Amino acid sequence: KTKVGVVGLPNVGKSTLFNALSRQSIAAAENYPFCTIEPNTSPIAMPDDGRLERLAVMAGSRRAVSATLELVDVAGLVKGASRGEGLGNKFLATIRECDVILHVIRTYVDDDIVHVHGRVDPVGDADVVNLELLLADLAHVQRRLDRRTCNGIERDVLSKVEECLVEGRPARTLGLSLEEGQSIKSMGLLTLKPVIYAFNVDEVDLLLDREESLQRAKESMGRIQYCDPEKDSFVLVSAKLEADIGELSENETAKYFESLGSDGLPDNLLSHNSVPKLVKDMLGLSLVYTGPGVPASRSQTTKSHLLGQPAMRAHDFAGRLHGDIQSGFMQAEVIDSASLLEGEGYAGAKSAGRLRTEGREYTLQDGDVILIKWK
Ligand code: GDP
Fold this sequence. Notes:
Layout: E1 3-7, H1 14-22, E2 40-45, H2 51-58, E3 68-73, H3 88-96, E4 100-106, H4 122-145, H5 152-166, H6 178-183, E5 195-200, H7 203-208, H8 210-223, E6 233-237, H9 239-246, H10 250-259, H11 271-283, E7 285-290, E8 298-303, H12 314-321, H13 323-327, E9 329-336, H14 337-342, H15 345-351, E10 356-358, E11 368-374
Parallel strand pairs: 1-3, 1-4, 4-5, 5-6
Antiparallel strand pairs: 2-3, 7-8, 9-10, 9-11
GO cellular component, one term: cytoplasm
Keywords: ATP-binding, Metal-binding, Nucleotide-binding, Signal
GO molecular function, one term: ATP binding
């Protein structure tokens, strides 16, 4: 399961965003630092513009089961976390298990909400968090290098990583090879993980000054230190707006937007759409569809080119479904979901010869509908 760790300084809006994303009020959003003590997790569905729903209808299935990401709300980080301050150690251990970091940055101004450093400073905040992650990795790497059991490729790679960190660059900027990545994988280095910065903007800015907010975020991205300017990406969110409308009926939502002088927020800007899509792109995940039911009633994510992970093949996928399906694997029937949805249904596609028959070595492609034939 792909884990997305939500990090950021206290009071930037992590819990609020977490709640908006999970649509369940699991994490308590309160106006004081350290209110999030236990790491909370919640599944969030992988959006696909309604494709799964339509496939499930085609399959005559009443329940579509979507692939999910696991969102992890990590306890608030403060300056000094890498030395164990605040909830430092716990924070670091939780984040080590995540595949990608969603780094929430406060850009909203609200005098009623305390800022831990006394003023709203998106770039400064991001630097504090990034530096803690970097220092934590440096200490971790140096401890490992001090051991006599650290040899061969592991020692070579870690020496390279140490040098990189000392220069103030996160380990992911090294662009390690698959083999190099594997050799130090068990360490779960924090700065190897891809980062998405979520700029938590004021709801009015998001609704009415979207272009300007975007420009400001881009400009901030350019000034954040200890990041990977090539690969790190960002998204605009308004945690409060989403939390607010999550509580309202359709009618009330319309009124709410009207009161702000806006006609509403396009679906693709809602964080439960934008964040998982970005995660999918960054991690190189594919979303595929399968039974039970023909053509499909379930979507699943598969890794396509993750560091140290070969892309998923039909035979591995069968194994994910069930051991018996894998051992009895005969062939896979595959069709692209978009082309299937355009056409005349599964039976029609089959008789028109538009289904492909693939063997166990077939590499799954994003958007595939795949049905395994087994005995
Ligand atoms: P966390 O400590 O990072 O988890 O922050 P919370 O999500 O608990 O938010 C702290 C406080 O800031 C809460 O009272 C939220 O309602 C408020 N807050 C969060 N996001 C926004 C926002 O976009 N605008 C405003 N005005 N307040 C927000």
